[in-house]
Design a protein that fits this description.
By secondary structure, the chain is of the alpha/beta class. It is 43% helix and 14% strand. The termini are far apart.
């Protein structure tokens, strides 16, 4: 057991398999991997060695409170306001670190975004409340990744606002592909621009609002047959208004 301890202390990343080989090769002592593993666990429990620094870390449990439901492959939006994809990215502009929250509607390609100094759930909630004011349609359901910013305050806001919340499986950013593409667009068409000099959140929010207006009202989309998001939405919104009036 002392030999096991010495080998491990000299090689902090070695696990039971490597140590079993070294014991047999260099010391003529044969132990199975499982036996070496039990000895290492005993030494760790006694505080005589530490866990291998290269050992896989235990996954953090997702702490959603019950309103959020797992996203199921094949879910699709059938109208504006369904299955909005929301994400955030960390960016820097004019030496100012920023958390850029963004929502993308898969039907109309409409995007709204806003900037914050942090990515806490309180900021995500503020973004959701602003999003509701800015979208020209009612938001019925949202999909997000499992980031902590979409837990706690954000999830509670979804409950209060009667918005369905769906959470993607771990490590599946491709299923949030629309908002990921939107992030890339704003990296290239907003943050990479050399003529934006604002160096405060307030100033950058103003410049971002102009860029969002251009995206939604001027930039043609091939998936919308050359229409802008607002051109695509206009007849849908008019039909909805007429149906409510009749």
């Amino acid at each position: 057991m002392q030999l096991h301890r010495r080998i491990r202390k000299e090689n902090l990343t070695y696990g039971k398999a490597k140590i079993a080989v070294i014991l047999k090769r260099d010391h003529g002592i044969q132990f199975s991997e499982s036996t070496v593993g039990r000895i290492l666990k005993h030494l760790m429990n006694k505080g005589l060695i530490q866990k291998s620094i290269s050992a896989p870390h235990k996954k953090r449990k997702r702490r959603f409170k019950g309103h959020a439901q797992p996203w199921i492959y094949g879910m699709k939006a059938l109208k504006p306001g369904k299955m909005l994809q929301i994400d955030h990215m960390s960016v820097s502009k004019n030496n100012l670190p920023i958390k850029h929250f963004q929502a993308w509607d898969p039907t109309s390609k409409f995007i709204h975004a806003s900037l914050y100094s942090n990515a806490k759930s309180r900021s995500a909630k503020k973004f959701l409340l602003e999003l509701i004011q800015k979208t020209p349609f009612k938001i019925e359901s949202i999909q997000v990744d499992g980031g902590s910013e979409f837990m706690k305050d954000f999830e509670e806001a979804c409950v209060e606002l009667h918005i369905q919340l769906f959470v993607l499986p771990p490590k599946r950013p491709q299923w949030n592909g629309g908002v990921e593409r939107g992030n890339r667009i704003f990296r290239e068409e907003f943050y990479a621009r050399k003529d934006i000099f604002a160096d405060s959140l307030q100033g950058l929010r103003f410049d971002l609002s102009k860029s969002l207006h251009k995206y939604n009202n001027y930039r043609p989309h091939f998936n919308l047959k050359g229409l802008t998001p607002m051109q695509y939405l206009l007849p849908i919104l008019e039909d909805s208004l007429l149906s409510h009036m009749s």
